[in-house]
Every structure is written in structure tokens, then in C-alpha cells.
Amino acid sequence: MPSPTTVELLWGTQQRPKRGPKPALSLERIVAEAIALADAEGLANLSMQRLAERLGFTKMSLYRYVPGKEQLTALMVDSAMGAAPDIAAAQRDSTEEPWRSGLRRWAETIFERYSTHPWSIALTTGVRPIGPNEMGWMNAALITLDGTGLGGAEKLDTIVLVNGHIRSLVQQVTSVGRTETAERMAEQVAEMMTAVGDRYPLVAAAFAEESATTGAQPGTGGPDDALKFGIDRILDGLGVLIASRT
Asked: Would the pTM of this model clear 0.85, i.e. be above it?
């Protein structure tokens, strides 16, 4: 029997043997362990050999379930992203316009998924097969934008725009935790402003104003503040466009 393709594995359309002994492994277990390994040690340390050792099997035994690392990582991404959020629930619980509240929930949820599995950023670029969960995310965003007057291309570009903001923000904070990132940033900002703040008065003033406004140390706004600010500005811009169409 030929090896299943990436698409067949993602969508479960490959032919499976109907007879024979019960498999010692399952594709679901292999993918789950691969995700755990990538979460703990990064994508660079993921190999079929390392994965086989964690599972207690030989590397060759894994190839009976997944032909290679390309197929494995595609399955990992789709599993790690999980199901899209309940857009209807977000719209019911908000006083914002439905498209706005739905897209906000979409963006906040995908930020959490990327943050939990930062290695997925590197695997979700370029032309590649996508699985049912990723397709569900796209569909959820399109449901949110239905009835806004935007064209199909504009809706897809909106997804790219929002997703791009989320991805770039996650990439800035994946090397350490969010709290540690904020603390380290505050220390570095304080040190730099003490040393050279007089040479960059506008930078010093901006950080000082941030501190006066928030009551926190300069530079501790953190990714959550940047996340909300970016989402709000994107939604504001889309709101202008949508208003012009309706």
C-alpha cells in the first residue's frame, strides 16, 4: 500500500487496512507526543528518532503511521491550532458590532494558540496543505465578516492582516514568558534611559508618559497591551471601510 499523502493524513481520507492485529501505536498519540516535544524543546530538536525514543518505539515503526517529518509537522500544526472559537457566543456576549466582536475573539484566541505553540509560526508560511482545523479558523473569520459589504478578496486580506499582527507579536515574546519579558524590558529601558535618555529626549518622554499614564514601570506595557491596541486599530480601520460599503 502506498504511503499516505499529507492531504490524506490531514483529512483522514487514506485507506486503512480492515484486518490485522491492533496497532501498537496511533497517529493521534504520535502527533500529541511530537507537539509535547516541540513545546518543551523547540522545533529544532524534533526528529523522528527523538520522537521514537520518547514513545518507546523504533524510528522505523513510526513510518508505518506517518511517512516523514513533513507530514508529521503538518499534522502537528492542525492539531495544535485546534478548533476555531465560537464566534456566535462572542457576538452574543458583546455590545460591539457583531463583526467587530467576532473578529476580536478570533484574534485573541489565535494569539493564545500561537503563544502556547510558538513553533507553529514557522510552520504556517508558504504554499502548503492545510487541515480541517485551519480551514475552520478561516471559515470562522469569514462568518464574522459576512454581511459587512466587503468582497471575497477583501475578507481574505482582512484575515491576513489580523493574523499578521498576531504572529509578529507572538514572535517578539516567544523566547521567554510574558511576565519575564515585561520585567526584562523594564530593566533594560530603565538602564538605557539613565545612560542615554538625554540623547533621545522623545524616546525618554514617551516612556515617561507611559509610566505616568499606567502607573507601571516604563516599558512594561507588555504583549497583551500591544495585542489589544493593534486589534483595536485594525478594527477601527476596517470599520471605516465597512461603513463606506453599507
From this structure: no
HEC string of 18-78? CCCCCCCCCHHHHHHHHHHHHHHHCHHHCCHHHHHHHHCCCHHHHCCCCCCHHHHHHHHHH
pLDDT, tens digit, 9 for 90 and up, residues 182-241: 677 777 877 887 788 788 888 778 777 776 666 555 444 555 788 999 999 999 999 999
What mean pLDDT value characterizes the chain? 88
C-alpha cell belonging to residue 16: 486503512
Query: Are residues 51 and 62 in contact, defined by beta-carbon separation less than 8 angstroms?
Result: yes
Q: Which domains does the chain have, with CATH numbers?
A: 6-80 (1.10.10.60), 87-245 (1.10.357.10)
Task: Report the C-alpha gap between 116 and 6 in whole angstroms.
Answer: 24
Cell numbers for 147, please give them.
454581511
